[in-house]
Structure formats: C-alpha cells, structure tokens
C-alpha cells in the first residue's frame, strides 16, 4: 500500500554508511558472498516471503540479481489488499453506495476491482470515498461529520489491526455513534498453515514478516518448524536484513524459527498491542483470495464492540461475485505462479490498467515486478 | 501496507507523540507503546508507534547517522558537488 506521508529519506538512511569505513554496499556484497557459499553447501532451496513490504524491498534493491542459483525466493500472500476476497470488496462497494455513508480506507484498496466496479469508480459516480493514512483519521472524520455514517474499511495483518483496535476504543471513549468498522483484517499464522497443508509447492523456509512479528512475536510461528519441519527467519526491510535472514535460513540444519530483525522483534511480541487486539476483536473464518476460507484467520469485532460493526449497522445486499476474467492473482498469491509468467503480465495487465489486485497495490508482487523490471533485468525478456 | 518507519520522539502530550525523522515531524499515537519516552526511537505504522526500538540499536543508528553526516560534509568539502552521492 502506498504510504505518501512516510518521509522518503527514512528508509534509505538506514542503509547508508556503516561505522569503520564500510558501506552498506560492501556489507551487501559480503553477505551475498556468504549466502552463495551457504547455498552451495546446502543445495537447492525455495524460500517464500509473506510480506508485501518484503516483496517491494526485494524488487527495489534488485536483490534477485544477488541470489545464488540454488536459491529461489517466491512471494506469498503478504499483500493485504491483494488477499482481500472479491466478495468482501463487493460489501465495501455496496456500503459506499449508501447515500448516508462516508467510506474511509487505506490508499490502494480504492483501485482494486470488485465484481462490477472499484471504490474509485464509485467515488467518480458521486460516492463519498476517502483515503486516510491512519484509522485515527477516520475517527476524527466521524467527529467532524456527525450527520454522516463514517465507515472505516479495515484491512491489514497484525501490524495494522492493533492500530484499528485503538481507533475503535477511541471512538467508543469519545461516544461517536456514527463511526463503524468493516473489519477485513487477517492474521498470518493460519495462512502459513493453509499454504503448508496445500502442499502445492515444496517450501524450504519462510522469510517471516518483520512488522507483523513486532506485534505477534516469533513464538506464534513455532508450529511451522515443529509440525511441518519448515524453517523461518523474521526479517527486516533493508537489503542487508533480507540477505542476512536468507543466510540464516540457508545455514539452518534443523528447521527452526529465528529472528533476524532483532532491533525490533522479540519472541513474545508487543503484549500491549496483543491485549488491545484481544479486547476489541475475536477470531473468525476469513476468505482469502487464492487460499479460500481459512478457519480462524480473520478478525471481527468482539461481542462488546458489535455495535461498531458496519455489516450490522448498515446491512447491504451484494450481487453475484464475479472474479476478473483471466486473472491469475490467486495462483500468484500462493507462490505457484511467477508474476512474469502470467499471460496478462505487462500486456493486458499493467499498473495503469490493472486486471487484478496484485498489479494494483504497490506491494503486490505483480506491481513490484513490473515497476522494478529494469532493476531486475526483466525488460529484455518482455 | 506493513511499512513502518523509525522515528524519534520529540515530545509527548496526552498519549500522542510528536516524532521526528530526517527533519520531518508528525504525530503518532502511543496507545500500543505506553512505556515510550521522549528521546526513544519508535517504529511508526499508520499513525501509531508499534514498538520502541532496542536502545543499543538506536545508539548505533545515531552514531551511524552522525558518521554519515560527517562523511557527507567531508565529501562536500572535497569536491563541492553531488552531495549525498555516497548514499547510493
């Protein structure tokens, strides 16, 4: 998802010069060398990242060029906009069409095709659809527009869900009767289990999501190693972080869950955020694009907060769900199809005219591969 | 979506922090990190601080920024053009 208000220098500055006269470039080269030897020793391996911000970082830094041949890194269901099911998008569109509703959400969602239109189309047709940076902004909007029904469409994994829980608590404390939430939040462990159960592809290890794990910690992934014999390393978002995490994975002789992003992630996670989520939300079954319905992998408002549930306050009818014709986003999201191998990639489907969500969201694996196709040397192949 | 940016807390007022990175300031809620204090580096996501970065790491980061600024100043003094070219 695009974050226009993020200071542009903040990420680059992380990867600049290092003490002792070494530069980030030197470190990246050194790590790539170590990764090559570790991979040669270990043999062919397929790793999967399950975080849209990793997808983007890997393409942006051109890291695929640095990977040894023995390592294949595929993108999984890590982009929240992309995994949102068409049927759920239809509910958001139907809500936006209610004349009394001001529909508020995060950026990329407005351009994702639902069955018959996008939220952006609805806005062009007169609906009041607004994009915010924070769920707190939606609460402010509800306070400013008391005559409107302000519906926030909450998407995102465990990184985002606690911020939305905090916003719901704020709305309750401020006594705002016109604020409600359509919660499409999803949690990561169930998706990993679904991928492993599907056995569609042999995954050697997971590059685990850094900022989801800030909240959840790493203990919640132990089942991946213990029940499935698959390793995982929680990775940060600099080029060095990603390479270091892959190196840790390549060096694992016994599958284990480790943390590479130690400056931000602890095994137990952020307990305050977890308590807040548990107060406001409860697990529910959720429908994922590409993975189908995964038991307990969604978050809906807990009974004490049901009066803030948009689907109960403003029940809407949606028509039949229609998936975009020819779109292979579902298969891409399982890591079973490389975006560049999709027949629509860069022909009928481009960021300017996207067919499926993976080309809409800046974090979608199709959009990332398209945007950085020159960095990755793909240009010649297309 | 899960982008989070390291920023430093400049001040705190009723659970809302003013935070700064690279000369840019914005506000972030502290409901998820009530222990955060002025001077801490926090990761900020969607208007909320989600964790306090490890102090040792933050110190290292500050040292890194200082050295970076020094290196940039030296580079500028030496050739007078392309400030920040060393960042690539």
Features:
heterodimer; A: about 375 residues; alpha/beta; five-stranded parallel sheet; four-stranded parallel sheet; 17 helices; about 40% helix; B: alpha+beta; SH3 type barrels; five-stranded antiparallel sheet; 1 helix; disordered C terminus
Q: Give me the Rg of chain A, rounded.
A: 21 Å
The SSE string of chain A, one letter per element, is HHEHEHHEHEHEHEHEHHEHEHEEHHHH
Sequence of strands across the biggest β-sheet of chain B: 3-2-1-4-5
CATH superfamily of the domain at 26-32 and 42-76 and 190-255 in chain A: HypD, alpha/beta domain 1
Mean pLDDT of chain B: 79
Contiguous low-pLDDT stretches of chain A (5 residues minimum) are 1-19
The radius of gyration computed from the alpha-carbon positions of chain B, rounded to a whole number of angstroms, is 15 Å
The termini of chain B sit apart by 25 Å
% residues in beta strands of chain B = 35-45%
Number of helices of chain A: 17
Count of the domains of chain B: 1
Low-confidence stretches of chain B: 80-88
Percentage of β-strand residues of chain A: 15-25%
CATH topology of the domain at 26-32 and 42-76 and 190-255 in chain A: Rossmann fold
Structure description:
- The complex is a heterodimer of chains A (382) and B (88).
- Chain A is α/β, with parallel strands linked by helices and 382 residues long.
- Chain A has helices at 9-12, 24-42, 52-60, 80-83, 86-96, 119-124, 135-144, 161-173, 188-198, 210-216, 222-228, 239-251, 271-280, 310-313, 329-333, 357-360, 365-371, and strands at 45-49, 71-75, 101-105, 128-131, 149-154, 179-183, 205-208, 231-234, 257-259, 281-288, 292-301.
- A 5-stranded parallel β-sheet of chain A has the order 2-1-7-8-9.
- The radius of gyration of chain A is 21 Å and the shape is globular.
- Chain B has a single domain (5-79), classed as SH3 type barrels.
- In chain B, β1 and β2 form a beta hairpin.
- In chain B, strands 3-2-1-4-5 form a 5-stranded antiparallel β-sheet, with no helix packed on it.
- Chain B contains 1 helix and 5 strands.
- The interface between A and B is large, with 54 and 38 residues.
